[in-house]
Automatic annotation (TrEMBL):
<dbReference type="Pfam" id="PF13577">
    <property type="entry name" value="SnoaL_4"/>
</dbReference>
<feature type="domain" description="SnoaL-like">
    <location>
        <begin position="55"/>
        <end position="195"/>
    </location>
</feature>
<protein>
    <submittedName>
        <fullName>Nuclear transport factor 2 family protein</fullName>
    </submittedName>
</protein>
<feature type="signal peptide">
    <location>
        <begin position="1"/>
        <end position="26"/>
    </location>
</feature>
<keyword id="KW-0732">Signal</keyword>
<dbReference type="InterPro" id="IPR032710">
    <property type="entry name" value="NTF2-like_dom_sf"/>
</dbReference>
<dbReference type="InterPro" id="IPR037401">
    <property type="entry name" value="SnoaL-like"/>
</dbReference>
Length: 207
């Protein structure tokens, strides 16, 4: 997604983002310390001892599903179903998750554009798609790398996204990657912070 305007100073974005992210991760990590009633801190796993190697495989599989959950939610919005996409985002993210974005031309060492909460991000996506005039979108993810450390972890995912302007005529294609901070909650793994890094955003038209 492209974003042509940003409100507020970039320095303010950075300070606010650091505070929101730290609070979001701390809150969800504390919540993960105690399992839901009758459940397990990993979400959906049986009580009792689980071999460490097996637990890691289970964790990584559940975390990887989050990036596909996000893509499905975004493309649901891309097809015009805002509420369907919003509902799906709520399954991918913690309630107080932060979404950050660096667009082509942004200083990668500077503060990103920030949105707080999956519901607000759904509105941003819908506005971006409507403003650009997209009729549908397709987000493809790959090269997923996951690192789990107890109840927190990181995930990096390559991105290729196609935004359809006119079927069989013109599209806009984005390339980049996502950097995620994930946390274990009583309801399973969730994304606490997702940072989008867009390297290119190109318009392609048929001859």
């Amino acid at each position: 997604m492209k974003q042509d305007s940003r409100s507020g100073s970039r320095a303010s974005w950075g300070r606010m983002g650091a505070a929101m992210c730290a609070g979001a991760i701390a809150a969800t990590a504390l919540g993960a310390a105690k399992p839901a009633e009758g459940g397990h801190p990993g979400g959906g796993l049986p009580q009792g001892g689980v071999p460490a190697a097996l637990q890691r495989l289970v964790d990584e599989a559940e975390i990887e599903k989050l990036t596909y959950c996000y893509a499905e939610a975004t493309d649901t919005i891309g097809r015009g179903d805002l509420e369907g996409g919003r509902s799906r985002y709520l399954q991918c993210f913690t309630q107080n998750a932060v979404v950050a974005a660096y667009y082509p031309g942004d200083d990668p060492n500077g503060p990103p554009s920030l949105i707080s909460g999956p519901s607000a991000w759904a509105d941003v996506a819908k506005n971006e798609f409507d403003t650009a005039g997209y009729t549908s979108t397709q987000h493809l993810n790959g090269n997923v790398v996951i690192n789990v450390q107890g109840n927190t972890g990181t995930m990096k995912t390559y991105l290729q996204a196609t935004h359809v302007l006119e079927a069989n005529s013109s599209v806009e294609v984005a390339h980049g990657w996502y950097d995620d901070i994930v946390v274990r909650t009583p309801h399973g793994w969730k994304i606490a912070k997702r940072t989008l890094h867009l390297q290119t955003f190109l318009r392609v038209e048929s001859p």
